[in-house]
From TrEMBL:
Belongs to the KCNMB (TC 8.A.14.1) family. KCNMB1 subfamily. InterPro entries: K_chnl_Ca-activ_BK_bsu. It comes from Podilymbus podiceps (Pied-billed grebe). GO terms for cellular component: voltage-gated potassium channel complex. It is found in: Membrane. GO terms for molecular function: calcium-activated potassium channel activity; potassium channel regulator activity. Keywords: Glycoprotein, Ion channel, Ion transport, Membrane, Transmembrane, Transmembrane helix, Transport. The chain crosses the membrane at residues 20-43, 166-187. It is a multi-pass membrane protein. This is KCMB1 protein. One of its GO terms (biological process) is detection of calcium ion.
Length: 200
């Protein structure tokens, strides 16, 4: 009687462990799919792949420009902010090019090197842009990214999704997938030895 209860409890535990392993594998596959349709296209689409050194030539704050504000209505869809333009000397080619914060900055406003966030008010934006400009004047040389193919003549300060971030994004689903497969393998080994001992 006690033996039957132990066998039943063992089978229930194996079933739960198997379900856990399969669930972990399924979740990791969904995470892989999500990363594959969101982060990977941004990484592969970026042409600014090579790191080099940039030297600041000038960092000027131009006239106030208007940026669309998606949080407000169409009548109030403008947000004024000072336009910071940073021109650098690209060490790899010796060209004078314009610097942008990220790939997204160029798409949002190609006239300015920095585009503020949506939640910032005008005073915060003005102060932040003045601080950024002074930092560029202070630190003349810094690493930047350029397009070795020459399709984009400008450079960016940092990539939205560098390789290390992409690897880190794939780390967690990989660990979950490995853990799920390990649980399934251990359950199958346990079932095999149980059948083997029952035959003996």
């Amino acid at each position: 009687m006690l033996g039957k209860k132990l066998v039943t409890a063992q089978k229930r535990g194996e079933t739960r462990a198997l379900c856990l392993g399969l669930g972990m594998v399924a979740c990791s596959m969904m995470m892989y799919f999500f990363i594959g349709i969101t982060i990977v296209p941004f990484y592969t689409k970026s042409v600014w792949t090579t790191e080099t050194e940039c030297k600041v030539l000038k960092a000027n704050i131009k006239d106030t420009v208007l940026r669309p504000n998606t949080e407000s209505s169409e009548d109030e869809a403008i947000f004024p902010y000072p336009c910071l333009q940073v021109w650098v000397n690209l060490t790899a080619t010796g060209q004078e090019v314009m610097l942008y914060q990220t790939e997204d900055t160029l798409e949002r406003n190609p006239k300015c090197s920095y585009v503020p966030g949506k939640s910032e008010n005008s005073k915060e934006v003005k102060l932040r842009i003045e601080t950024i400009a002074s930092n560029f004047r202070k630190y003349q040389t810094f690493p930047c990214y350029y397009d070795p193919g020459g399709t984009q003549t400008n450079v960016i300060l940092s990539r939205l999704y560098p390789l290390k971030n992409l690897v880190f994004a794939f780390l967690w689903p990989t660990l979950m997938f490995t853990g799920g497969c390990l649980i399934i393998v251990l359950v199958k080994i346990s079932q095999y030895f149980s059948v083997l001992s029952a035959r003996q």
